[in-house]
Amino acid sequence: MQTSPPIEEFIPADAKRGERGVRENIYVWELPVRITHWVNVISIGILTVTGIYIANPFMGTTGPAVNQYLMGSIRFTHFVTAFVFTMSVLVRIYWAFVGNKYASWRQLLPTKYARRAGIRRMLGFYLFIKRKAPAVVGHNPLAGSAYTVLFLLYLTQIITGFALYALPFHGGIWPGMFGWVTYLFGVGPTRLLHDTIMWLILAFVVHHVYTAILIDIEEQSGLMSSIFSGFKALTHHQIEEAYLEETQQPRRRRVRNKHVS
């Protein structure tokens, strides 16, 4: 039988438990989480603009070609940013195993019943079926699951990107590590997949900003500013509701005894 963690894990030790309306600043997003978040944001922006240009150059240069190297500069910027983005993603994955409970992989994968049940309730709120969003301190269950899919897209984008980067090389580390991608799937499908994932990530960004603003307005917790400061301001009532959300157990079905005459 699973046991629930004590509510003290959700409420700071120095909190005034009697004052349910008082807000407590809770340190949710650690520094590595905030840094990788903003590195990813900036990287996605640069990679998108440079990637679109590489696929379809939308401006040119004038003068002798020997003095111009616009495409080369754009490609160089794209590749350098790709390396930075890759390191940021790997650091965030590492931090999912060594960071605090709000950065943990358990917030991303709905391994517990409470998280799985929370996905349904959160989806109901987003679809305007429920008027109130489930209380959470860290990632809500639906967002956590979406981030899992997002990181799978990140990894696929990284692999396909390095596979395309390896094309001009004849031997060496890059074809050895990523040449199998274009060998199995072909250059065209690999490039198409790489481009498609870019648009999927951009669609997620739009949805992410919208839902973050929506939840910030609903909770009044400073969610938007928390990705800069690391702190969310929650009332004791919100924290207690989040505790109940995170520790709920599946209901046991009653088994009726059938008497056989």
How many strands in all? 2
**Terminal Cα span:** 35 Å
Query: How much strand content do the residues show?
Result: under 5%
Count of separate structural domains: 1
CATH superfamily: Transmembrane di-heme cytochromes, Chain C
- Shape from CA axes? elongated
User: Number of DSSP helices?
Assistant: 8
Strand order of the largest sheet: 1-2
Given as residue ranges, the uncertain stretches (5+ residues, pLDDT < 50) are 13-18
Helix-strand sequence: EHHHHHHHEH
**What does the average pLDDT come to?**
84
- Determine the fraction of residues in helical runs and give it as a percent range: 55-70%
- CATH structural class: Mainly Alpha
**Class by helix and strand content?**
mainly alpha
Taking the sheet with the most strands, its summary is: 2 strands, antiparallel
Question: Any idea what the radius of gyration is?
Answer: 24 Å
How does this structure look, described?
By secondary structure, the protein is mainly α. It has a single domain, classed as Fumarate Reductase Cytochrome B subunit (Up-down Bundle). Helices cover 61% and strands 4% of the residues. It has 8 helices and 2 strands. The protein has helices at residues 31-55, 70-98, 113-126, 141-165, 173-185, 187-219, 223-229, 236-247; strands at 23-27, 231-235. The protein has a two-stranded antiparallel sheet. The chain is elongated, with a radius of gyration of 24 Å. Mean pLDDT is 84; it is low at 13-18.
